[in-house]
Amino acid sequence: MTSVITTMPLADSWGLRPKVFRWSGPPALTPAEIWDLLDCGLLVSPYFEVRPEVAPAPATVTRIVQTKPRPGYADGRAIREHYAAGAVLTLNQVDHWHAGIKATAEWLRTELRADVRSSVVLRPKGTSPPSPALDGAHVLILQVTGHTVWRPGGDPVTLQPGDALYVPPDHLRQTADPGDESLHVAFTIRQPGITDLAELALANFLSDSRAEAIAATHHFMSPDEKVAWLRAELSAYLKELDSGALAEQAVRIARRGGQA
Q1: Mean pLDDT, to the nearest integer, of 70-91?
Q2: What pLDDT, on a 0 to 100 scale, did the predictor assign at position 132?
Q3: 53 near 87, Cβ under 8 Å?
Q4: Residues spanned by the domain of 152
Q5: Angle at the Cα of 149 (from 144 to 155), degrees rounded to 5?
Q6: In the prediction, which pLDDT does 4 show?
Q7: What is d(CA 157, CA 259) in angstroms, rounded to the nearest whole number?
Q8: Residue ranges of the alpha helices (H) in the chain?
Q9: Distances (CA, A) of 47 to 51, 108, 154, 207
Q10: C-alpha distances in angstroms, 223 versus 208, 228, 234?
């Protein structure tokens, strides 16, 4: 497969330690593009967040769409006021509509068999961006403009435009100081865990023809016979199991919010 990412040298650090490297993947959003989108008023909550809402005006307006009032649309002028007053702007799931970020997210999903979520953070000078949650996810941060200073579990790391920071799961991720105005993209990457795969494999086995064939007669078996059947049939099922397909199924379920 030809990667849309030409350089991501993480073979020596994936899952082990943070690493900074130069990014050469598809282009990301610019601040000018973000303000144009907000001024057009097409973005709707929860695809954007303004935190904290320190300006007096609300950040959203209600629009009439197909003759019905629809709340939550971005109010570009109000968001500019919030931003000027020190609020941080976050765009969520940008890969749903931005071609470059979508290409990167899809590559990560395919290569890593993972659930990948994207966000873009634009912050004014003197403020700190929100830290990605410590929830077992790998994080990839791409610096677009300005700079940010992070403490990924050790010494401070300064990201300049074009830099990327990889952070393994459960490492401390926070800014060391506010710095100047900046824009960065963050990808959270969640790969299925052992428990996820084991539970899914067992659920698939119980809906397989082996389990269906014995469903009407297993109550005639003794406990020892049931255990012997389970040991033999489950072992045979696992030997035939396509591990890649199982991982991809787990990712699809995660992207649907846990619904099979």
Answers
A1: 90
A2: 62
A3: yes
A4: 19-32+87-190
A5: 135
A6: 37
A7: 38
A8: 31-40, 76-84, 99-112, 194-206, 209-214, 223-240, 243-255
A9: 13, 21, 32, 37
A10: 21, 9, 16
Strands of 36-156 (E only): list them: 48-51, 60-65, 68-74, 88-92, 115-123, 138-145, 148-150
Residue whose entry in the numeric block shows the structure tokens 């050469």 = 24
Judge if 25 and 60 occupy the same domain: no
Confidence of residue 248 (pLDDT cuts 50, 70, 90): confident
- Residue whose pair of structure tokens reads 């074009």 in the numeric block: 162
Residue in 226, 204, 228, 227 with CA at minimum distance from that of residue 217: 226
- Structural domain ending residue among the three candidates 190, 214, 236: 190
Contacts of 57 (CB under 8 A, 6+ apart): 75, 77, 78, 81, 82
Residue 1 lies in a domain: no
Q: How far is CA 73 from the centre of its chain?
A: 23
CATH number at residue 177: 2.60.120.650
Same domain membership, residue 23 and residue 145 = yes
Query: What tokens does 103 get?
Result: 């290409």
The answer to whether the pTM exceeds 0.90 is no
Q: Check if the beta carbon of residue 155 is closer than 8 Å to that of residue 131.
A: no
C-beta separation of 106 from 2 below 8 A: no
Instruction: Mark which of 137, 160, 190 sits at the end of a domain.
Output: 190
Convert the pLDDT of each residue in 186-222 to its tens digit. 999 988 777 777 887 888 877 888 777 787 787 878 8
CB 59 within 8 A of CB 78: yes
Same domain? 172 vs 239: no
26's tokens: 């598809």
